[in-house]
Amino acid sequence: MKKNVLIIGAGGVAQVVAHKCAQNNDILGDLHIASRTQSKCKAIVASVKEKKSMKVANGVFKTHTLDAMDVAATAALIRKTKAKIVLNVGSAFLNMTVLSACIEAKAAYIDTAIHEDPLKVCEPAPWYDNYEWPRREECKKAGITAILGAGFDPGVVNAYAALARDDYFDKITDIDIIDINAGDHGRWFATNFDPEINFREFTGQVLSWQNSQWTSNQMFEIRKDWDLPVVGTRTSYMTGHDEIHSLSKNLDVPNIRFWMGFGERYITVFTVLNNLGLLSEKPVKTAEGLEVVPLKVVKAVLPDPASLAPGYTGKTCIGDLVKGEKNGKLREVFIYNIADHEEAYAETGSQGISYTAGVPAVAAALLIATGEWDVKTMVNVEELPPHPFLALLNRIGLPTRIREGKEDKPVTF
Amino acid sequence: MKKNVLIIGAGGVAQVVAHKCAQNNDILGDLHIASRTQSKCKAIVASVKEKKSMKVANGVFKTHTLDAMDVAATAALIRKTKAKIVLNVGSAFLNMTVLSACIEAKAAYIDTAIHEDPLKVCEPAPWYDNYEWPRREECKKAGITAILGAGFDPGVVNAYAALARDDYFDKITDIDIIDINAGDHGRWFATNFDPEINFREFTGQVLSWQNSQWTSNQMFEIRKDWDLPVVGTRTSYMTGHDEIHSLSKNLDVPNIRFWMGFGERYITVFTVLNNLGLLSEKPVKTAEGLEVVPLKVVKAVLPDPASLAPGYTGKTCIGDLVKGEKNGKLREVFIYNIADHEEAYAETGSQGISYTAGVPAVAAALLIATGEWDVKTMVNVEELPPHPFLALLNRIGLPTRIREGKEDKPVTF
Predict the structure, then answer these.
(1) PANTHER family, alphabetically (chains A, B) (predicted)?
(2) Which of B188, B268, B296 sits opposite A287 (nearest CB)?
(3) Chain B touched by A289 (CB under 8 Å)
(4) Quick check: A308 contacting B, CB < 8 Å?
């Protein structure tokens, strides 16, 4: 059954989502996109038309103005557009209001990152217990599917973990999720997604799951170099990340860590801004008496991540290094994807980071439309069958590969 | 004749000025201090009383609330306090309104830094032509003395240049003004005076006077290490500075440069903030629609310079390296002062940077009171006789020394 889709948000990820939904509008039906600034939505739809991404060329793709913090307005728009699936790729601050609207208006809900409270950074672990999971019963009662964290990381990396569990291991001891952007945007400094959300990831403590318990470290305290396919040897630092908070609960794996690649420039900028207090989410008062959140000013001066796309070159490598046992023998595999910034831009007008986050969310929407993932409750991606998801991603732009020892090959289903 | 003094401002320099005026209130008469925040003025007067700085113990020292951007209010306060000398050590944005009030109410005017327009950075050279010098005739007509830039640099270093011209050289080819703060405030990062004014010094082009013309460079483009008395070998960078803009006009010297000492930490912080656009004086708009000047937010998160004083250790070395000819022979002298942060704090409750800026301004006020510098027009310090000024500074805390070849000795008058 065709299902209308409402996309919320109008940044780089929304642009990818719009293109991918359009390419599959024979399955999805009418498309709608809404954000606070309708002109951004219009620009995205114009790009979709310009690139002839609409599979059903005369299909509907409409734009709307929406304050998604307003539950009633969001529910009203879901009803008006007859949307059966809401793809929430707006700010992480909107998740809970959009979820409420979906429950009220009976639409499936998909997001790509955990809910955040603007005034709080790094809440208690597991993070999903703070906002999402307490609402599972509500979703079940309303009979709506809510897929949490269906981007790349979290999202595809959770499916990789599930795939490892199902197909490659009897017992898993370690999952190291590694996220390397080996691309070059040519700017002195820029973040690849919303700077506010980006920096907020790193201003708190670094939580990891080790020896089956939460472990706390400082940012940039633990460094590890990895020899990776295509992008070569890269430096990463242990960081906190959403997926550890669901995988630690849903998988019986004692060690789950997340490693993010950082260049020297990022570390210098982060260190200066953080030490000066400019990454704080707490308001300060200027000498003139104006109350302002420093991090929001940092965001205002940095390049719009969407603006990086045209000149972005290079590739990303994101995957799960999984260790454990199979048939009584030690085993180690790296399940991963390589994405290319220039190819992402040519196809969708967005760079590779937006591409890797947006494409999986659309894959999740397609699997809800086909019924394969329409589970009528709230789930994280590792709770869903990984095969249909990864098979679909193989076809629509994010193919999975596996490296084991000297062998490196595509994963096919 | 005793002259009442009105101090405008209530920061670290104002605190030094208050103490030094109090120590000389037998010459100066009633003292008044005014700023937007009267509580800061009261804290300064309390410190003066606590350290028993009042020479005439039962002398007057009153506090006032004043918006010094308001000419009429400032003139009214000058009249009310019967102030004959206004020591303007408030923000550099106030200079022209305070000068207007002095002209209107017939009081002598002293400042320690050039006037700045909040919306402009690095205006055309010579800087004094933009605001101050066009008003010289007004001062002359009103019969008031206006001494511009009577801090250390500008101020004492201008007097050093005049001293070199009068006593040490027949002809000067080069004046290199060197400002090294070899102190340690123990913070990760802090500016020694108002961060807004501090960073504004370095965000524009670097103007120097070379081969009798204005020369432009980038900040941190030209580095020079100096072997200096007491503080040893120190790294400096060519920077723009007020005094070049008057010395180049008032002295017949083809090369006048300014060198400021910077540590690695300062350069890193400055480079990051400047490259990101966080030092901009131009407002940006946050995603939430709030208009805010990034530099004012940086100021808001940085430590209050006055708060650095208690733990500040080490010394400053500021002086003029002068090259030229005397009696047909090449000559090179370094005329300088060494100030100590801890001694400055013990005496005035402020650190050394505030001390070196504030004490000369009070010396200028004393020389206006005694008539020696009461010239009834607008002047820069090098246009005034240097001997009484430097002799007075020898007595009140900033002794002058001279190094020539292997000889290094006090300059006495």
Answers:
(1) CARBOXYNORSPERMIDINE SYNTHASE (PTHR43796:SF2)
(2) B296
(3) no
(4) no
Q: Longest Cα pair distance anywhere in chain A, in angstroms?
A: 69
Determine how many CB atoms are found less than 10 A away from the CB of residue A288: 10
Residue A263's CB: how many other CB atoms inside 10 A? 14
- pTM listed for this prediction: 0.78
Q: Which positions ≥6 away from A39 have C-beta within 8 Å?
A: none
* A290 contacts chain B (CB < 8 A): yes
| Structure token digits, residue A138 | 């509500």
Minimum-distance CB partner of A292 among B268, B277, B297: B297
Would you call B301 and A287 a contact, using CB atoms and an 8 Å cutoff?
no
Q: Return d(Cα A310, Cα B146) in angstroms, integer.
A: 57
Contacts of A11 in chain B (CB under 8 A): none
DSSP B46: H
- CB-CB under 8 Å, B284 with A301: yes
Query: Do B88 and B9 form a contact (C-beta atoms < 8 A)?
Result: yes
Tens digit of pLDDT at every position of chain A (413 positions):
689 999 999 999 999 999 999 999 999 999 999 999 999 999 999 999 999 999 999 999 999 999 999 999 999 999 999 999 999 999 999 999 999 999 999 999 999 999 999 888 778 999 999 999 999 999 999 999 999 999 999 999 999 999 999 999 999 999 999 999 999 999 999 998 889 888 888 888 899 999 999 999 999 999 999 999 999 999 999 999 999 999 999 999 999 999 999 988 999 999 999 999 999 999 999 999 999 999 999 999 999 988 888 999 999 999 999 999 999 999 999 999 999 999 999 999 999 999 999 999 999 999 999 999 999 999 999 999 999 999 999 999 999 999 999 999 999 99
Question: Which domains, and CATH codes, for chain B?
Answer: 4-151+354-394 (3.40.50.720), 156-352+395-410 (3.30.360.10)
- Which of B40, B268, B297, B298 to substitute to test the interface with A, most A CBs within 10 Å? B297
8 Å CB contact between A294 and B297: yes
Upper half-sphere CA count for residue A270 (Cβ side, 13 Å): 18
Which residues of chain A make contact with B299, given a CB cutoff of 8 A?
286-287
| Chain B residue with minimum CA distance to A189 | B276
A213-217 and A223-228 beta bridge pairing? unpaired
Burial of B93 (0-12, 13-18, 19+ CB in 10 A): middle
